[in-house]
Amino acid sequence: MKISVIGTGYVGLVTGTCLAETGNEVICVDIDKTKVDKMRNGEVPIYEPHLDVLFERNIKANRLKFTTSLAEGLAHGEIIFLALPTPEDEDGSADLSYVLSVSEEIGKKINNYKVIVDKSTVPVGTAEKVRAIIAENASCEFDVVSNPEFLREGFAVDDFMKPERIVVGSSSERATTLMKKLYSPFVRSGNPIIVMDEKSAELTKYASNSFLATKITFMNEIANYCERVGADVDMVRAGMGTDSRIGRRFLFPGIGYGGSCFPKDVKALKKAGKDADYDFKILKSVIEINSAQKTILLPKIDAYFNDDLKGKTIAVWGLAFKPETDDIREAPSIAIMDALLEKGAILQVFDPEAMPNISKRFGDKLTYSESMYSALEEADALLICTEWSIFRTPDYNKLKELLRNPVIFDGRNLYNINDMETEGFTYISIGRKAVNL
Ligand code: UDX
């Protein structure tokens, strides 16, 4: 099929590339000429495992093309994906200006039947707005469909190629048939394509992300309570997770959720609720708790150093908001590093992928280390903010040799408490007893 994707951010790029992989002819449109030139030369503008392989293969096969011309993009596709940014407005709602201005152009430019697909995360009612704007200008038939993405950064290619479900919000038989045809190669395993009305599809995305953010936040509260009463959150989690109604996933406590989706979507749903005269009390709490959770280790670090962090060197492992990405948006590491710098600490940082992004945010306020071990040299303690796999099994002897004091503040519960105790580390984690303190 002929597909156009408008916007080559994270979602657009993954969508376009993966749709080309199943044999579709895809044109991706972006206004950024430098970016388009780079992509034409096979350069992937983001770090995402496996994307480079698919990217190269499909460009070579001539199935994946890039242009800055919206007119060319709109002429090409029978299905047109809108993967445009919906940044957070000052009041927390999603800013739809990109989506709506492109919709206007679509109305003016299309001259045969097209399915316009909202892929961006947009508030309930957006498909209706997009439809109205296109209808004002269009002289041909078209349909608007909502098709939210559920891609996790770091696993986006896998999530796209083998989705657990595909949600299609459509009130047109013709559009639904085309969407089913497009997605049929991705659901051979029998996973469902769930067709519903557009509003329910739009809400499904917000509800899913807000639920997951709430699930994590609930566990963070349980972890904080565990510390007060001497329970072990790892045990509680294991006990809870085996109940199939609860499930094992997304029960890992830590220093809070971050990223480009959860924080933005929770806030947007809360704001959308308010606009509809509904007060999402649970989401208000989730936002507050998560914000506090990001610096939950700070009082403990402070106490360890007798409230005097001035001139203390802290090694920081993990800066990205989660492993397998270079994304630092809303990363808990930022909140805690800001607070530590404020108190006069010196930070020696390392992350396998996020160093360039974090250096743009912090400049010369941080010392950037070449490796996880060099970050430890002459440091008074180690702080872990992201659970990259390489941090999971470090050489403990090397750690003890390099650190001035064998002290670890672990925001992601990477190590077994008993191991830490035997190895002689002072180890402070989340929702578990502190050892050798
Ligand atoms: C999320 C959704 O999972 C995806 O479906 C949606 O489309 C986009 O948003 P992503 O932001 O890439 O994906 O990351 P995800 O793996 O879901 O993690 C989100 C945050 O929650 C991370 O900061 C992570 O560290 C945190 N998290 C996750 C926990 O703190 N505990 C957990 O148990 C799981």
What does the main sheet amount to? 6 strands, parallel
Can you name the CATH architecture of the largest domain? Answer: 3-Layer(aba) Sandwich
Query: Compute the gyration radius: what is it?
Result: 24 Å
Lateral arrangement of strands in the main beta sheet: 3-2-1-4-5-6
**CATH fold-level assignment of the largest domain:** Rossmann fold
Outline the low-pLDDT stretches.
none
Total of domains: 3
How many strand elements?
14
Q: What is the structural class?
A: alpha/beta
Please tell me the overall pLDDT: 96
Distance between the termini: 63 Å
Pathway: Nucleotide-sugar biosynthesis; UDP-alpha-D-glucuronate biosynthesis; UDP-alpha-D-glucuronate from UDP-alpha-D-glucose: step 1/1
GO molecular function, one term: oxidoreductase activity
EC number: 1.1.1.22
Keywords: NAD, Oxidoreductase
Descriptive notes:
Helices cover 43% and strands 14% of the residues. Helix 1 crosses helix 3, helix 5 packs parallel to helix 6 (126-137) and helix 9 (198-229) crosses helix 11. The longest helix has 32 residues, at 198-229. It folds into three domains: 2-196, Rossmann fold (3-Layer(aba) Sandwich), CATH 3.40.50; 205-293, N-(1-d-carboxylethyl)-l-norvaline Dehydrogenase, domain 2, CATH 1.10.1040.10; 298-428, NAD(P)-binding Rossmann-like Domain (Rossmann fold, 3-Layer(aba) Sandwich), CATH 3.40.50. The model has no long low-confidence stretch (mean pLDDT 96). The strands form three sheets. A six-stranded parallel beta sheet has the order 3-2-1-4-5-6, with helices on both faces. The chain has a six-stranded parallel beta sheet with strand order 11-10-9-12-13-14, sandwiched between helices. A two-stranded parallel sheet has the order 7-8. It contains 17 helices and 14 strands. It has helices at 10-21, 33-40, 51-60, 70-76, 97-109, 126-137, 156-161, 173-183, 198-229, 233-241, 262-275, 281-293, 298-304, 332-342, 355-362, 396-402, 417-423, and strands at 2-6, 25-29, 64-67, 79-82, 114-118, 142-146, 166-169, 193-196, 313-317, 346-350, 367-368, 381-384, 407-410, 426-428. With 437 residues, the protein is of the alpha/beta class. Bound molecules: uridine-5'-diphosphate-xylopyranose. Uridine-5'-diphosphate-xylopyranose binds next to helix 9.
